[in-house]
């Protein structure tokens, strides 16, 4: 037993070390001289994501910011279908959002503030604006390069725009992306989400975690058995309603504490540009901490550049890449600028009976609370009236988390399905019938993992999730950089921009 525990601890330590290097820029807990400024480590993924994001933003001539108003206008007409595809553009956006909005919005924001202080929220906003450029690129390329199966079903994503936009010689990149997607789907899209929803059901209703996992697995299977049309239909109904209710509750909480809002914004901006030295650090170390925390949590929340959301946008019923690109960038805006900001402002503004180290403090973000407990505590302080001994604020935040996580489980099942299908299609003799059998096997496996993951210790899984997200994002970001010229032309209204790499093959799809 002792040897087993030691081996387990060693594995966690090794995985944690790799995760800390990718997202924190440290190795064995120490900053690397060649990857640090004044002793403060620079996370490699932050450099890559922001670097490619800024390249695309500048190449687009700040299109996402200039066209944000047009994107919101298009939101009201996107419920109508005016092109080929599987679900309406609005349903595609809702599906993508259902994968984006989840633990990152309700718990990740608290983690960012804990690690980088209130200033991290400013850098989360900056990251979202850059992320909108990446999201536009993903959404527009998803429509420009997508597949049509022999029985008329549309589908796509990074694996498709890699093959059709870059050519067969980049098959290795597409497969690498799919392997990263499967890794990320089973870890962050399934196990972590299943555990979170089981915990929520246990706290609210006293349901044992294993039973909560079983209930969620059955409900998820009922939806995903119908494929992307069923998933899109559920997401289209749940996400707008739940997101709207959550934001409305946050706005009411802020109105009730309106007098403290100026001080909150002062904390955010002062923290973002605080040039005072951190303990044992250099002048400006506090800024570096805020940037690292804000960027990492912002990207974890909105998934911009990760390559997940274009899989959902590819099935939209539209033939206009620019239109769906705007929908995709709107998803990043809603996820981070709207929902994450509301969460942050409530935590930073609402006062209550909180403690830190045994001492009374005014706000949840100053307290000993961590993660979702910090978010839930802030909402409970804003709405303390109880229903069945549970504060209304806690009830709303918990139900929001459960529903957001449930829809995340639906959407990520489809992302994983697309990845495993692409790999299967590289096998000589693969058929559409074989794909459908594989889909069923995957859906059953997905629900089994939900049941297992609901009651597991996630210390190792969370760290594996950080690595899997990077493994998925890196191939996609390379593809976005290589296809950036096509993206710039798509933004100018050229619907057929870029080369077309097609080949007649006996296997599905018959396009490359």
From TrEMBL:
Compartments (UniProt record): Cell inner membrane; Cell membrane
Organism annotation: Pontixanthobacter gangjinensis
UniProtKB keywords: Cell inner membrane, Cell membrane, Membrane, Symport, Transmembrane, Transmembrane helix, Transport
Lineage of source species: Bacteria, Pseudomonadati, Pseudomonadota, Alphaproteobacteria, Sphingomonadales
Family per record: Belongs to the alanine or glycine:cation symporter (AGCS) (TC 2.A.25) family.
Matches recorded under Pfam families: Na_Ala_symp
An example Gene Ontology molecular-function term: amino acid:sodium symporter activity
Cellular component GO terms, alphabetical: plasma membrane
Record's bilayer topology term: Multi-pass membrane protein
Keyword Transport: yes
NCBIfam families with a match to the protein in the record: agcS (TIGR00835)
Protein's recorded name: Amino acid carrier protein
Membrane-spanning parts: 42-63, 84-102, 122-143, 170-190, 210-231, 238-259, 265-291, 327-348, 392-416, 437-455, 467-488
Superkingdom assignment: Bacteria
């Amino acid at each position: 037993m002792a040897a087993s525990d030691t081996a387990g601890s060693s594995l966690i330590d090794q995985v944690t070390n790799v995760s800390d290097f990718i997202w924190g820029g440290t190795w064995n807990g120490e900053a690397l001289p060649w990857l640090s400024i004044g002793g403060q480590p620079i996370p490699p993924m932050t450099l890559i994501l922001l670097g490619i994001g800024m390249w695309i933003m500048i190449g687009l001539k700040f299109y996402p910011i200039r066209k944000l108003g047009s994107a919101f206008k298009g939101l009201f007409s996107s419920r109508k279908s005016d092109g080929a595809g599987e679900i309406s553009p609005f349903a595609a956006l809702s599906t993508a959002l259902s994968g984006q909005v989840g633990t990152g919005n309700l718990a990740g924001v608290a983690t960012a503030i804990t690690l980088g202080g209130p200033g991290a929220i400013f850098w989360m906003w900056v990251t979202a604006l850059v992320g909108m450029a990446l999201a536009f690129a993903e959404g527009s390329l998803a429509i420009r390069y997508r597949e049509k199966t022999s029985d008329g079903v549309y589908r796509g994503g990074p694996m498709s725009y890699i093959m059709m936009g870059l050519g067969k010689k980049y098959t290795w990149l597409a497969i690498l992306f799919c392997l990263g997607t499967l890794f990320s789907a089973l870890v962050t899209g399934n196990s972590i989400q299943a555990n979170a929803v089981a915990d929520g059901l246990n706290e609210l209703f006293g349901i044992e975690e294993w039973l909560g996992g079983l209930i969620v697995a059955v409900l998820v299977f009922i939806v995903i058995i119908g494929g992307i049309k069923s998933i899109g239909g559920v997401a289209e109904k749940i996400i707008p309603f739940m997101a709207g209710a959550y934001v409305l509750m946050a706005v009411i909480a802020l109105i009730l504490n309106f007098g403290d809002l100026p001080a909150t914004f002062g904390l955010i901006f002062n923290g973002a540009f605080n040039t005072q030295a951190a303990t044992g650090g250099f002048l400006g170390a506090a800024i570096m901490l805020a940037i690292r925390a804000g960027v990492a949590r912002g990207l974890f929340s909105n998934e911009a550049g990760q390559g997940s959301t274009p899989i959902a946008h590819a099935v939209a019923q539209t033939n206009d890449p620019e239109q769906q690109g705007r929908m995709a960038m709107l998803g990043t805006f809603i996820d981070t600028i709207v929902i994450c900001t509301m969460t942050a402002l409530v935590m930073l503004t609402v006062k209550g009976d909180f403690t830190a180290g045994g001492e009374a403090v005014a706000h949840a973000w100053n307290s000993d609370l961590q993660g979702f407990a910090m978010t839930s505590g802030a909402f409970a302080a804003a709405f303390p009236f109880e229903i069945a001994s549970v504060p209304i604020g806690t009830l709303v935040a918990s139900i929001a988390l459960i529903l957001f996580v449930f829809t995340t489980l639906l959407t990520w099942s489809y992302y994983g399905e697309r990845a495993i299908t692409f790999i299967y299609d590289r096998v000589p003799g693969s058929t559409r019938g074989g794909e459908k059998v594989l889909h069923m096997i995957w859906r059953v496996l997905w629900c089994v993992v939900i049941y297992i993951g609901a009651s597991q210790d996630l210390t190792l899984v969370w760290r594996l999730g950080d690595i899997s997200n990077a493994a998925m994002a890196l191939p996609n970001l390379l593809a976005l950089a290589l296809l950036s010229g096509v993206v710039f032309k798509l933004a100018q209204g050229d619907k057929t921009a870029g080369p077309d790499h097609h080949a007649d093959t006996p296997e599905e799809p018959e396009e490359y």
